[in-house]
Amino acid sequence: MTQADPAPANTRRSHDREILTLAVPAFGALVAEPLFVLVDSAVVGHLGTPQLAGLGVAAALLSTAVSVFVFLAYATTAAVARRVGAGDLPAAIRQGMDGIWLALLLGLAVVAVTLPTAPWVVEAFGASGTAAPHAATYLRISSLGIPAMLIVLAATGVLRGLQDTRTPLYVAVAGFSANAALSVALVYGAGLGIAGSAWGTVIAQCGMALAYLVVVVRGARRHGASLRPDAAGIRASAQAGVPLLIRTLSLRAVLMIATAIAARLGDVPVAAHQIILSLWSLMAFALDAIAIAGQAIIGRYLGAGDTDGARAVCRRMVQWGIASGVVLGVLVVAARPLFIPLFTDDHAVRDTLLAALLVVALSQPIAGVVFVLDGVLMGAGDGPYLAGAMVVTLAVFAPVALLVPALGGGLTALWWAMTLMMTTRMVTLWLRMRSGRWLVTGATR
């Protein structure tokens, strides 16, 4: 062994510690988020089928409305991390405040649109006559919490950029616990029905936003950063978010097309597809946690002008992504007898599920690379390339997916098309990573 050997090993261990320190709490926070809807479903489900159906419609609409603005977290993380790397904490927090002000403005705009149009939107979404009134009630009330939800996204980005993923975990757990208690108290204790569940969500989200704001404001005062809205800064945050919005909408289009194709295949395939999609989303949380670590770490390295460090940690995170994907794939195959019965007793659905699930398991290492490189390029502020790459991916996926029912293919063929989609993403992201064009240093890109 040469004397040069310990240094790379020490560097790898240092990167591993850094990745785990950020990724593990990020994973916990990500898992806590869908528990809001799960708790509401459990509480409202005992009110009756129309109420539960109404919640399902409203929750889907609300989730879509908020997820479209996830760029508030991504863009803010990258921008703040760059300034942290450059050693300018006041500017980092000032940048974060711009993102929070943008979140508030966007949230108020969404509320202004949602309140008067809720019944029409619910009807357009296909809610039944018995479920529609409950869906409209839940959507109208819960929309009042959208500004808080978007502030939570932006403030989460601020803290991630500051290399802090523990605080978002604590806030998410507290918010979930408060939502659970409030839902039970307001739905049954106060007798408010589905409206009580919506108010519980609004109050919990507002509490989370307030907790984040307290943390950010304290940091701003400690470092002398201004809290006032700055038009130029807000505009810059919006401009940085547009490419990521395009990326998110393109990804949403992929998932919507896949579900629409599955529905055309019949009731059994679409039921199996929903189960697989739920598992796919759960596994995505684990991989997305590494991507979040990538956003924060890469932004900091590039802000500090350390391109060699950025390349090295990128390589290490790709290794983490591949290894995590292999582990997840093996777990899916090994645990099939345990989790499939939890979802369905229908043998036709189970039989349809099995072959497609093997395709999903095989694709997890690809997904690991995709999530990691997505996070790396987000951390580098390479939004325009990510937008273009996702549009190209959509253009490749859509015609192939549409051919599945035309050629008599089933659910397994559809998930091979999804694997093609992920492979296309991997290729486009890998080419960008290899080019080095994302390695733009400095406090701003």
From TrEMBL:
Q: Does the keyword Transport apply?
A: yes
An example of a Pfam family matching this protein is MatE
Q: Which organism is it from?
A: Streptomyces thermolilacinus SPC6
Recorded GO cellular component terms are: plasma membrane
What keywords sit in the KW lines? Cell membrane, Membrane, Transmembrane, Transmembrane helix, Transport
Localization, per the record, is:
Cell membrane
Q: Which family does it belong to?
A: Belongs to the multi antimicrobial extrusion (MATE) (TC 2.A.66.1) family.
Q: CDD domains of this UniProt entry? A: MATE_DinF_like
Q: Highest lineage ranks of the organism? A: Bacteria, Bacillati, Actinomycetota, Actinomycetes, Kitasatosporales
**Record's protein name:** MATE family efflux transporter
What would you give as a GO molecular function for this chain, any one?
antiporter activity
Provide the topology term for how it sits in the membrane.
Answer: Multi-pass membrane protein
Stretches that traverse the bilayer: 19-39, 51-80, 100-121, 141-162, 169-191, 197-217, 275-299, 320-340, 352-373, 385-407
